[in-house]
Design brief:
Oligomer: single chain
CATH architecture of the largest domain: 3-Layer(aba) Sandwich
Shape: globular
Structural class: alpha/beta
Radius of gyration: 21 Å
Order of helices and strands: HHHEHEHEHEHEEEEEHHHEEHHHEH
CATH class of the largest domain: Alpha Beta
Strand order of the largest sheet: 1-9-8-5-4-2-3
Number of domains: 2
CATH topology of the largest domain: Aspartate Aminotransferase, domain 2
Bound molecules: pyridoxal-5'-phosphate
Helix content: 40-55%
Distance between the termini: 27 Å
């Protein structure tokens, strides 16, 4: 059996270092808003080339607090892609604003800049640009459009830590970027955690207040805030893993190159890597019109796969829209995408096994 993802391998290798990081926090007994969190904030801000990192409880909370810090609320519209993880849109509703779904480019499943331009109205306050699967959205065009219309850009970089566009890291393009350290992400905590990155002092100050009950210092609560901090145990463990991130990213890219080479020419849609992009392959996601049959065949052959995601966001029951009519590219992607095993600890033999199984499965499926 070749697993879709096996986190125990990473944790087995790093066990001693992770446990000593936990012990360091236990010995300090400072668990919330301490030195580890501050150090991690500085390290990740530096990686994205911005001045501020602000640790919060999850990637979802990072999006919520970004919207709150930008002053988004009832009566506002926020543009978001019709194909993503649900939080790229549900957080807009949590803020009391209206998500305006825009269709995606078929090649990279990123926001289509032309559809984006048509969706902007005088009520648009912000755009959520998602770097899906680890491939950057065309962020230069999105930021230029946003600037021209006076709206803010939130980069949802939950899947894209370490990715770059035109050589500049994602997370450093928009007004604010959101990271997730959900355990299965490329930099995963041992629990929930997230972070905002920004160059804007006003947004960093606002989020530092908002994550801690709207506290401007010493129990002085100046606005309605939340309770969402990245705790010291998670921060200390994340700092251990951050030292491996670049090496892990290279391993993912090497594996992706191997898949690209071995699967080229087959009747299978392969991920596209724009020449301006550094794709960090959070997911290696292929496309096939008979996706469910392909997944079932691979399961029989002992290869784990996952579907990211089985519905376009607007057709989730939460929103209940007809995606086929409104967002045809997103609708089609939801029926064709299939993610193959792609993680740094996958062995050479396992990668060979995945390739052989995909070839065998396709032979059976092709009419
Ligand atoms: C994981 C993810 C989130 C949410 O992050 P959590 O830490 O799980 O709350 C938001 N957007 C995208 C694109 C994600 O992949």
């Amino acid at each position: 059996m070749i697993p879709f993802l096996d986190l125990t391998r990473q944790h087995h290798e790093l066990r001693a270092e992770l446990l000593s990081a936990v012990a360091r926090v236990l010995d300090s007994s400072r668990f919330v808003l301490g030195a580890e969190g501050q150090a991690l904030e500085a390290e990740l801000a530096r990686l994205a080339g911005v001045r501020h990192g602000v640790g919060v409880g999850s990637g979802t909370d990072a999006l919520r607090l970004a919207l709150a810090a930008l002053g988004v609320g009832p009566g506002d519209e926020v543009v978001t892609p019709a194909f993503s993880f649900v939080a790229s849109a549900s957080t807009i509703m949590m803020a009391g604003a209206r998500p305006v779904f825009v269709d995606v480019e078929p090649a990279t499943l990123a926001l289509d800049p032309e559809a984006l331009e048509r969706a902007l109205t005088p009520r648009t306050r912000a755009i959520v640009a998602v770097h899906l699967y680890g491939h950057p959205a065309p962020i230069d065009r999105i930021v230029a459009l946003a600037r021209a219309h006076g709206v803010a850009v939130i980069e949802d970089a939950a899947q894209a830590i370490g990715a770059a566009w035109d050589g500049h890291p994602v997370g450093g393009w928009g007004d604010v970027a959101c990271l997730s350290f959900y355990p299965t992400k490329n930099l995963g905590a041992c629990g929930d955690a997230g972070m905002l990155l920004t160059d804007r002092d006003d947004l960093a100050d606002a989020v530092r207040r908002l994550r801690h009950h709207g506290d401007a210092g010493r129990y002085h609560h100046v606005e309605l805030g939340y309770c969402s901090r990245l705790d010291e145990v998670q921060a200390a463990m994340l700092r251990v893993k951050l030292r491996r991130l670049e090496e892990w990213t290279e391993a993912r890219r090497g594996l992706a190159a191997r898949y690209h080479k071995a699967l080229a020419g087959l009747p299978l849609g392969l991920p596209v890597e724009n020449p301006r992009a550094r794709h960090i392959y959070h997911l290696f996601t292929v496309r096939h019109p008979r996706r469910d049959a392909l997944a079932a065949r691979l399961a029989e052959l002992g290869v784990g796969t996952m579907v990211h995601y089985p519905r376009a966001v607007p057709e989730q029951p939460l929103f209940g829209e007809n995606a086929e009519r409104g967002w045809p590219q997103a609708w089609r992607a939801a029926r064709e995408v299939l993610s193959l095993p792609c993680f740094p600890e996958l062995t050479d033999a396992e990668a060979e096994g995945v390739v052989a199984a995909v070839r065998a499965a396709l032979e059976r499926l092709t009419p």
